[in-house]
Amino acid sequence: MLIQFNTDNRITGDEAMAAEAEEIVKSRLDRFSSRLSRVEIHLADINGPRGGSDDIVCTLEARPEGGKPLTVKGNAGQSDSAIRDAADKMQAMLETHFGKLRTH
């Protein structure tokens, strides 16, 4: 499972942030790693310099082998919280997705 990390021009995505984001996503999605070809992490600040309580959006896109991409979004005031929110949502989505494949 390849993990790609991207930010918009309002968020400084340094190596430490990328490593932390990858670790959060890996810890939540590791059991699906053999079934996923790639996971993309996109961080964006929707309010820019105005700030706000939930202005950081993390979009996670997981690409199951031989399937269509699955996408979720997480919002929070801090980047790591937004990533955790999105990773938790993706974990639940993948459990449902692969569970349905197992029953068919």
Strand order of the largest sheet: 1-2-3-4
Terminal residue distance: 25 Å
> Any idea what the CATH superfamily is called?
Ribosome hibernation promotion factor-like
Oligomer: single chain
Order of helices and strands: EHEEEH
Largest sheet: 4 strands, mixed
What does the average pLDDT come to?
Answer: 90
Please name the CATH topology: Double Stranded RNA Binding Domain
List keywords for this structure.
104 residues; alpha+beta; Double Stranded RNA Binding Domain; Ribosomal subunit interface protein
What's this entry about, in short?
The chain has 104 residues and is α+β, with helices and mostly antiparallel strands. It is 38% helix and 31% strand.
Describe this protein's structure.
The chain is of the alpha+beta class and 104 residues long. The protein has one domain (2-103): Ribosome hibernation promotion factor-like (Double Stranded RNA Binding Domain), CATH 3.30.160. The chain is built from 2 helices and 4 strands. α1 (15-29) runs parallel beside α2 (79-103). The relative contact order is 0.19. The model has no long low-confidence stretch (mean pLDDT 90).
Strand and helix layout:
Elements: E1 2-7, H1 15-29, E2 36-45, E3 56-64, E4 70-76, H2 79-103
Parallel strand pairs: 1-2
Antiparallel strand pairs: 2-3, 3-4
